[in-house]
Amino acid sequence: MTTTFQPRTRAHAIDGAIATLIRILLWVWVALNLAVVAWIVLSSLKTTREIFAQPFGLPAVPQWQNFVAAWQVAGFSGAAFNTIALVAVSSVVIVVLAAPAAYVLARIPRASAVPVTTFFALGMAIPFQAVLVPLFLISNSLSDVMIQWVLGFWDDRISLGLFYIVLSLPFTVFLLTAYFRNLPSELEEAAAIDGASPFRTFVQIMFPLARPGIVTALVLNIVSLWNETLLVLVLVTDPEQRTLPAALLNLYNTMQFTSNWGGLFAGIVILVLPMIILYLWVGRRIVEGMTQGAGK
Do 211 and 221 touch, CB atoms closer than 8 A? Predict the structure, then answer.
């Protein structure tokens, strides 16, 4: 008996030690990130002299005017409107397009669904930086066509939103496919017996049931698009049409000459704080949606 269970006991002990080490490393990583956030917030309330003299100390007098200076110098009011409008519209359209596609992929036979799902997975594997030049050329061509032949005008923010939608669809479809596959099919059979069409079954039954997964996909897209910078810099030429991350880069260039580092940190807080609040608000639902979607 002793020789039989001793290897298993040793293996369990090793697994427990590894799990404990992983938990410790995760908590250390969380603590480091929280420390960085706290340092940025404290620095945003200091003068430039205090930032360099006491980088880890508390501000003698909170400098709330740093936020006013950052908001005015960087033109955050227009950039905030551009960001909120683009992120809100793009994220909703992404989910509206991805949910029906994911539902169909989750319900058709796997032999037919696997090639299409693989296609979406390949879309996730290709970084958009690798196709940045073609995206720029497409954007210019689209703008020329719309101005000369269709509408007589065009806004680069529309092109940016279209690329946001196209580039975010593969991940969203892939995520929601796993979630819809985890939902019971018996409800669809009962709805079909009652005479409900597949469209009505999806809209009235399956879509509400998939709410945790939908919320997860929506929030992940919001966070990703809120922080996106490279496409904005490449596709949007008018500074007044750019988003908050691009405005923050302009603020960085300005604050270097004025040496208002407190204002720069205040700009970082303005950009990051809404996403932190959003994640704290719906963080549990995100974890729930990710774990339930990984069930199958």
Answer: no
201-233 in b/e form (b: 16+ CB < 10 A) is: bbeebbeeebebbbbbbbbbbbbbbbebeebbe
The residue type found at 238 is D
pLDDT tens string 240-296: 888 999 888 888 877 777 778 888 898 899 998 888 888 888 767 666 655 655 444
Cα 283 to Cα 271: distance, rounded to the nearest angstrom = 19
Give the number of C-alpha atoms closer than 13 A to the C-alpha of residue 168, restricted to the C-beta side.
Answer: 30
Give the count of beta carbons closer than 10 Å to the beta carbon of residue 2. 6
CA distance 214 to 175: 9
**Half-sphere CA count of 229, side-chain side, radius 13 A:** 9
Q: Which amino acid is at 67?
A: F
Q: Global pTM?
A: 0.83
**Distances from the Cα of 25 to the Cαs of 19, 20, 111, 180, 283, in angstroms?**
10, 9, 41, 33, 21
In single-letter form, the type of residue at position 285 comes to R
> 138-145: which pairs have CB atoms within 8 A and are 24 or more residues apart?
139/163, 139/235
H/E stretch holding 55: none
Quick one: angle between helices 156-181 and 76-107, nearest 10?
A: 40
**Residue 234 CA to chain centroid, in angstroms?**
20
Q: Which is the CATH superfamily of the domain at 67-293?
A: MetI-like (1.10.3720.10)
Q: Which amino acid is at 10?
A: R
* Helix/strand/coil percentages in the chain, nearest 5: 85, 0, 15
